[in-house]
## 1
Amino acid sequence: MKKTVMIKTHALRPLLSVWVAMMLWFVGAELAVSHPLQPAVVTVTVGTDRVDVTVHDTLEPMIAIGRIDPKSQRDAQKVNDLYADLRASAPDIVEAAFREQWPDVARRIGVYAGTTRLDLTLGSVTEVEIGDMSQLRFGTFTFSAPLPDDGSPVTMGWTDDFGELAIHQAGAADDEGYTQILPGGQMSQPMPRAAPVKEGVVPVLARFIVAGFEHIVPKGTDHILFVLGLFFFSLRVRALLAQVTAFTLAHSVTLALASLGIVTLPASVVEPLIAVSIVYVAVENVIFAKRRTVTYARVGVVFGFGLLHGLGFASVLSDVGLHAGQFVTGLIGFNLGVELGQLCVIALAFLVLGLPFGRKPWYRARIAVPASCAIAAMGLYWTIERVI
């Protein structure tokens, strides 16, 4: 009986290693962009008798979604073709197409005063000139609606196919205002008239903890693979703790500095370097596969790469924007959420792989090394994609 069990375990080893490598590859390939499309930035000004909204977003997807159902497999290629045509079109053509499509766009945007849905009137539409076709271009449109006389607060949201949005309710002063990162398909908090939402520290902290966590799980695929690269170096607590601590300290520093505008680097520089960092830690796992203890050099490299990842994290907050009154709380909450996301990745990896297989003599050869190879391959793919 004992011999039979050993034979079955041995037979499963190559299958297990292939499974780990394939799963990492397919997860990476499915989400082959480090960050999701940045959220639309929506500024809402609620007066006593009128609400005015300014939206900064990619206009082409809104037009394409209105004309063709993107969830239909049959129409998927048509969506891609239409989007590509619009991306290559001059601003005046895109602006005209958006105005033509406005009735459908407006149906997907919900603005309410209490329980009353408001009729939206389109104002200005502005698209930028064609630039780098590999980059998104963001246009701006405005709309407004009269408010009923009952004094009811305003809520806003749009359908999930329009994606994530960051809603700002403008205040009279720079330190006033309200910011909420909202998934498509959900409605904002009620925004009172003539004054922004007043929130305590706890709701703001909680909201940005969630935003930071979601930036890692499930949206931050490149950050997930980097953390897994640290995990597959060694299962020893001291080695893992040293790497994670260095990474956390580093990205916390640059997240704060970049959010304050003290340190800035363009995404065209940061994103390829983040991909390179993934390749480096994964390749080092393979080259030094027999090493069990972490060196100062490894910790130093991880710290350096952590500085880069912090700049990547900061891009989310810069895209969304924070009012001065929410800045410190939002920054702390977002950073805490990022840490929780990273810890969840490590905990899950340990429960699924480290705990049941970590003491096996074949763990590194059959799991850690193949997984690191898959991570390196995905990082190399991202590097090439972001440079070209």
## 2
Amino acid sequence: MATSGQAPPPSRPRPTSISPRRRTTHVFVSTPEEYDDTHSFGGRGESNSQRSRLSWLGSWSSVLGKQESHQTVLGEEVFVDPIGEGSDEEQEEAIGSVRSGRSTPSYIGGSDHVPVEEDGELVNEQTALLPKSPVTYHTPSSTAIQTTLNSINLLMGMGILSFPFALSLTGWIVGITLVLLFALIASTTAKLLAKCMDVTPIDLPTTTSNLPPRPKSMSYGDVGQAAFGRRAKNFIAIVYLAELYAASTALLILAADSIHALFPHWKLLHIKLGVVALLILTTWPRSVRGLSYASLVGVVAILNLLTIVVVDGVTKADPPGSLLQPAETRLWPKSFDRVALAVGIMFVGYDGHAVFPNIYRDMKSPVRFARCINVTYLVVSAFYIAIAACGYLMFGNDVLPEITLNLASIPSYNPVLNKLTLWLIAINPVTKYALAVRPVHMAIENTLHLSPPFHLLARTVLSILILLTSLLFPQFHRLMGLLGSAFSGTVAIVFPLLCYWKLFGGSLGVLGRAVLGMGVGVGVLVIVVGVWGVVGARV
């Protein structure tokens, strides 16, 4: 019971469906803070029994160099809201709930729940299991401009280095068509994903007993679970672990290739050994908070890249490497297998769908999300076309899979500017590797129930395996093609469309279902053709 002088505890509210404007959320920023092992991925603060039930969806996207957040998901309480957009009053009636457990956020410090009042104290079924630590609630705070800038930063990762090479594979007509087509497809599925989120908001238990309940935003995996059940979320988790392993390998290759361009007399194998030794050290600390801020190097590197390419191109009067006198190019592709390889390389730059839920939930006005997505993909496509066109005009059919390698091969370019660009590209993977590989080694540690003394060993062995993978598959553009086809095709096309079909199919007409079916077919085609190009293209 409440004593004199103390405010009575808040009474338990009935579960309600909350408007997106009132939902708490992760505050998505360019460089996320990440808790140490105690707070993330079922870390040391969780019991072994809890860790054995671990399933997660890291909000990591497939494009290298992106800034993302991640979640540990041990279960959640789902309240299904069939109402889409609308006023708070229109969304006050709950439709039902699906019971499955609780969830721990990535870097908020707590989660939300509907408490129960017993003897004047707010408790719940998790009270005895969870520490009563303070909880910081983050409310939606991003304006439309901030949302657009975050989305642009999310999409423009290190995959942009291969866009000139991809354009050389496809020729002008097919290449520009693919860029615009992929932008249309990805922007559409991003908006459909947001609609799926509004159908199924989630209310989660909290770790404290003195705060009123607040709703928790959904992750990408929650959409899959709402549509297809727990197995769908587990499937997405497996896809992401494989994707992050491939992305980590690509980061190692990119760093080694950039350093080799700076010091061509050094053996590439020796460079990779030195780089992986440095990367292993970045995985040992329990917290990667400092590295997440250091990943701002990636933002600077991308913004610097187009500037350097244009400056180099206009300061050289003769080919190769000149915009004033362009090299020979093609209107049409030389063969179909070259187009197939370019499919994955190009599409990887449009997949931010695993992180879009975080961005959407942080919007003050979620109804403007569709417009923000339209602007984002318009700006990003213009940037991709600009860098691809400049690189292709400068080096023609001799453009390399990483445009920075071409820049390093022209001695008449400004050496200071080019070396600065190469160093930024080389350092960037070092700042991001630990962030990218962290969910993978946490999965290993929790699945095998490793004690803390074995964590460093597991992380070291994992990095050695990534090194061996980079030696077996040393080509950066093929890894980017695999990421863009097998993984991005699944995450950014097929899965969002299937979820939308499952949740909204009953309200769609024959034409609507036919369009969705065609979209799924296009996604499968991207996956099949892209993977075939990675394996079979003779480039």
